[in-house]
Write a structure and sequence with these properties.
By secondary structure, this protein is mainly β. The chain has two helices and 23 strands.
Length: 333
């Protein structure tokens, strides 16, 4: 099939999906889209069009969910078993995964840590041939005390200029380092570099119209109704910085612009996945938050559309988690 034919077919499919949604009154969705605790989500779309979401292991061995439409998610298993569970930081938990498709493999970066162990935690990596696994652990990439960055958690992978990079960190600074050609280790002789101060964690970097947008979360993530988590942002013309807020103040000095804050219904929204594009070219952001009516149920998964203002900055419709909104456009492949 020619490129023109593929694009025409996709356009026809999108129009058909939109017509079906209108005819069946399926124009909107309700938050949360995962009504159970699945913190720190990361999302990828497989070659067959199915979306997969991975999260911090409130479900032991790291839960995996899948969806055909970005709205209805089904739990399908875990990335690891007790036998295949990563042994880096033996008494630690698996936090804040980042899923990527690299050279034909599904590559899962993860943090392994325990509360208070800020010099013993670190980043590991596992690989699989399929998004549901089984994932084979390749072990640690580095520990905090090896790389010299306290609280080395929350990995994020990105490629730029033919090179592979990993960014990570928490409230001790956000750092980056170049990776090896296969993305499974730090490149020989690579030197870490810092791109932001001590305000944020949960780093994501998204390229859009000539800028790199550094999206992170500030505040306390995990205190239920007392949580102060919120999504903040800065941007740069270069992946390695310098990043600045809307006023041009440096992120290295903890200057960020707020993007998403709590509502009456959702407390502590944050630690978003990288932006996902639907089949109509619209961008979407998954993140976690506490349901104000039941904070004891943990950090559920929410979804909001991303828009871009006249100065190129991303924003959501209200700056707060939505209760109901227009559905994404997704064509089954």
């Amino acid at each position: 099939m020619s490129s023109y034919s593929r694009h025409f077919s996709l356009a026809v499919s999108i129009m058909a999906v939109a017509a079906t949604m209108m005819a069946t009154d399926q124009l909107t969705y309700n938050n949360p889209v995962i009504n159970r605790s699945a913190p720190d989500p990361t999302v990828i779309r497989a070659d067959d069009g199915t979306y997969y979401l991975y999260a911090t292991e409130n479900v032991r061995n790291l839960p995996i969910f899948k969806s055909d439409d970005l709205i209805d998610w089904k739990f399908v298993g875990t990335a690891f078993t007790d036998d295949s569970r990563p042994q880096m930081v033996p008494d630690g938990n698996i936090w804040a995964p980042d899923i990527q498709h690299i050279d034909g493999k599904y590559v899962l970066y993860y943090s392994k840590s325990r509360w208070g162990g800020e010099w013993e935690c670190g980043i590991g990596v596992a690989v699989a041939d399929a998004p549901e696994g089984p994932f084979v652990d390749k072990g640690k990439m580095f520990l905090s005390n090896e790389i010299g960055v306290q609280n080395s958690i929350d990995p994020f992978y990105i490629e730029d200029g033919g090179r592979k990079y990993l960014f990570w960190g928490s409230f001790r600074g956000i750092f980056g380092v170049e990776l090896s050609a296969d993305g499974l280790s730090v490149a020989p002789d690579a030197e870490k570099f810092q791109i932001a101060g001590t305000l944020t964690e949960g780093t994501n970097i998204f390229r859009h119209d000539g800028y790199y947008y550094l999206i992170g979360s500030a505040g306390s993530c995990c205190e239920g109704e007392r949580s102060t988590y919120r999504v903040v942002m800065a941007r740069s013309r270069n992946l390695t910085g310098p990043y600045v807020d809307r006023k041009g103040n440096p992120a290295m000095d903890n200057n960020f612009t707020e993007m998403l804050t709590r509502s009456n219904n959702v407390i502590g929204p944050g630690h978003n996945a990288n932006f996902v594009m639907d089949d109509a070219g619209q961008y979407w952001m998954f993140y976690h938050g506490f349901d104000a009516t039941a904070p004891e149920e943990g950090r559920k998964v929410y979804l909001d559309q991303i828009f871009w203002d006249d100065n190129g900055w991303p924003y959501t419709a209200t700056g707060h988690p939505s209760q109901s909104a227009k559905r994404p456009v997704v064509v089954r492949r």
